[in-house]
Amino acid sequence: MNEFLSRALGMKEEIVRNRRTIHQFGGVGLDLPETTAYVMERLREMGLEPVEICQSGVVCCVGGKRPGKTILLRADMDALPIEEKTGLPFACTNGTMHACGHDMHPAMLLGAARLLKEREEELQGTVKLMFQPGEEVLEGAKAMVNAGLLENPKVDAAVAMHVGIGRKDCRSGYVTYVSGPSGSSADELWVTLTRDKDSEVNLVDAACHMILGLKDLPSLEIRINETFGLMINAFVCDNDDPAGLADSVTFKGVMICMNDPVRNQARDRIVTIVEELAKAHRVQANIHYERSVAPLVTSKELGDQINPAIAEIVGDGNAEEQPLGFLSFGAEDFAEVAKHVKAVYLNLGAGCPEEGYAVEGHKDNVIFNEDVLPVGAAIYANVAYRWPQDQA
Ligand SMILES: [Zn+2]
C-alpha cells in the first residue's frame, strides 16, 4: 500500500475530528473566523507557519528545503445559509450548513499537511496549501489571488479537490476530472428603466422588448458550438399609482459561458441591445453589468501528469478523465486560480445512491461518507509529493 495512504488511514480519527469540528462552525462567505483560527492552530501544532493573507484566506507552505517547482493544493471551507436537518450528533446549529462538503476539504488538506510535513526533508520544491473562504459566493479565490497567493514562491501548478455526493458517478473513492473548459463563468446584469415624469411611455413594454432581444442573442449571434446561457430571473415594477404606468422597472439576468472571448462579445452585445432599445422606446436605461467569476479551464497536460499519483491511492480505473458534462457543476471560483497557472479540478466521490448516499449536495439533509477523508488527504499529499519530482 502507498505510504501516504497507510499513514492517512492511521490518522483517520484526527481527520474526522477536524472535519466534524469545522462542520459545527459553519459560516458563510468571507467571514469564517472560527474555521480560520482552528485551521491555523492545527497547522501551527504541526510546526508549520500559516499566514492569513486576506480575510479568512490562509496560505501555508511545506517543503522548500530542496529546489523544485511549487504546487498549490486548494481546499475551500465556507458553508451555506441552510438550516441543517441531518440529525447528526455534530450537526451545525447556527443556521448555516456545510452542505457542499467544504468541511471535508479543509480536513483532508490538514491531513495532507501532516503527511507532507512528516516527509518534508524529501520534498522537492514547495507545496503551498490554500485554505479559502467564499467559494459559494465566488469571491474567495479572487481575493486570495489579489492578496498574492500565487507569488513567493511563484506557483507552477494548482490542484483543487471537491467531494461529490448523491449521484451515481460519486461512488466513494472514485476520482474524476474534466480537461479544458469545465466550468462556466457567471456574470450578472441589472437593468433599471425610468421615464420622464410627464411621458406616457410604458416601461413594462420597453423591458419586455429588451428581454426578448436579449433572449435572441444566443441563437442569433453565438456560434452553435459555444455554450452561452442567459436567464432573466427577476422583474420588479415600482409604481406609485397601482392603476397607472410604472415609474421604474428593473430586471435582472444571469449569463453563463465557457469561453472568455465569447463572454466578452456577448457582454458588448447585451449592453448595445439594451441601449438601442432604450433609445427606441424613449426611456432611460441604467445598466449594471458585473463580471463575477471566469470560466474554469483546466489543463489536460497536468491531468495526465498527476493521474498516476492519484491512481496509486485509489487504484487503477478509479482515477479517470471524463468528458465535459460528466460532472454537473456550474461556476467554480477556482477558475480565478486556473486563469493564471495550469490547474486540475478533481471530483472525489463521497457516496452514491447504491452505497446509501442518495441525497445530493446543497440539500439540508445531505450526509457524506467520512471513509473518503483519509483517501482525499493521501491524494493531495501524493500528488504534491510526486509532481515536483517528476518535473525535476
Ligand atoms: Zn462546493
Describe the structure.
- The chain is an alpha/beta fold and 392 residues long.
- The chain has two domains: 3-182 and 295-391, Aminopeptidase, CATH 3.40.630.10; 185-293, Alpha-Beta Plaits (2-Layer Sandwich), CATH 3.30.70.360.
- Helices cover 35% and strands 25% of the residues.
- The strands form three sheets. The protein has an eight-stranded mixed β-sheet, with helices on both faces. A four-stranded antiparallel β-sheet has the order 9-10-8-11, with helices on one face.
- β1 (51-54) and β2 (57-63) form a beta hairpin.
- α1 runs antiparallel to α10, α2 (12-25) packs antiparallel against α4 (104-118) and α8 (300-314) packs across α10.
- It is elongated and about 75 Å long.
- The structure holds zinc ion.
- Zinc ion binds next to loops.
